[in-house]
Design a protein that fits this description.
Length: 351
């Protein structure tokens, strides 16, 4: 019987000790906090001023939520303590990177991803770099929006395909192509000059002062040559004149071969023809109507261009001459002069 009483008293004593143990654990957690983080101010538990009474709100502030029955404000603070919560990790931000257009969309106008034929010379058909250059040229010609873009090409000549990519677009596209070689053969100069009978250019005009100056005679030969064979205009002609034999060797980077022509120097007094004589076919010095757009009708430069076009069309001998025009749009007249002629002429016109 005594033994049973001791057991019963021991159980009751153990149950009574549980709140003290819990209080001790809570106190340990409170002690580990910094003074500023502890509820109720800077005073430590167990020191003067520490009570179990709820904290009173400061005057003028909104009262805090009432404590739940059976919980002190200190216990509620423990239950909601987030000071030890782990909030580390990357913070996601919206992706503001601009989305690139897909290269496949840019090239969708190329049917079946087949670029077709690309032109290269026979000498370059097996040179990867040259073929890639030709592919790029053909590609930009077909898809003009690619002009100026950073295109990267990786051609496989054995398979006749090319992988296209670009920093300006997303993705890559494989295209098929076919190499077409051109002979690259230049036209023969002799064929271009076959209209010159017996390879005799005839008379070329130079001044008396210049008749023995090789450079001046060659300039006169070139002028006469282009006048007779207009397809030579703008071509890279090279002349080697022999004034003692009155012949000239003509060659050009634009043609194959060379041709020797005969010529005769004809000297002139050096006096320039009068511009008024050159323009005498224009009745009453009235050029008539010149064509310009509505937007350009008040632009002096555009009107002068139209005047020059109309003038050369009416007086073909002025073609290639150094014409200078000064138009007065308010009076509808233009002063014409030229380094190739003497004097100046005022013409009327209508826009």
């Amino acid at each position: 019987m005594k033994k049973s009483k001791f057991l019963l008293l021991g159980s009751v004593a153990s149950m009574a000790a549980i709140p003290f143990v819990a209080a001790k654990c809570g106190g340990t957690k409170e002690e580990n906090k910094k003074p500023a983080e502890m509820p109720g101010g800077t005073e430590q538990p167990g020191k003067p001023g520490d009570t179990d009474q709820p904290a009173q709100p400061n005057p003028g502030t909104t009262p805090s939520t009432p404590a739940k029955p059976g919980k002190t404000p200190e216990r509620m603070a423990q239950d909601t303590d987030v000071s030890g919560a782990d909030i580390s990790g990357s913070i996601k931000t919206p992706d503001t990177t601009a989305t690139k257009t897909k290269l496949s969309d840019a090239l969708k106008t190329i049917a079946n991803n087949n670029l077709g034929k690309v032109q290269v010379s026979k000498e370059d058909k097996d040179k990867k770099e040259k073929v890639e250059e030709a592919i790029k040229t053909a590609l930009v010609a077909k898809v003009t929006t690619l002009k100026g873009k950073d295109l990267k090409l990786k051609a496989d000549l054995s398979k006749n395909n090319v992988v296209v990519s670009s920093n300006d677009f997303e993705g890559e596209v494989t295209l098929k192509f076919e190499v077409e070689t051109s002979s690259g053969a230049k036209a023969k100069l002799s064929d271009a000059l076959k209209t010159i009978a017996n390879n005799n250019l005839g008379k070329v005009q130079v001044s008396k002062e210049d008749k023995d100056k090789k450079e001046k005679v060659e300039e006169a030969i070139k002028t006469a040559l282009v006048a007779k064979v207009t397809t030579l205009k703008g071509k890279d002609l090279k002349l080697k004149a022999d004034l003692s034999k009155n012949n000239v060797v003509v060659s050009s980077n634009d043609f194959e071969g060379e041709v020797t022509l005969k010529f005769e120097v004809e000297t002139s007094s050096g006096a320039k023809a009068k511009l008024s004589d050159a323009l005498k076919t224009i009745a009453n010095n009235n050029l008539g109507k010149v064509q310009v757009s509505k937007e350009d009708k008040d632009k002096k430069e555009k009107v002068e261009e139209a005047i020059k076009t109309a003038l050369v069309a009416k007086v073909t001998t002025l073609k290639g001459k150094d014409l200078k025009l000064k138009a007065d749009l308010s009076k509808n007249n233009v002063v014409v002069s030229s380094n190739d002629f003497e004097g100046e002429v005022t013409l009327k016109f209508e826009v």
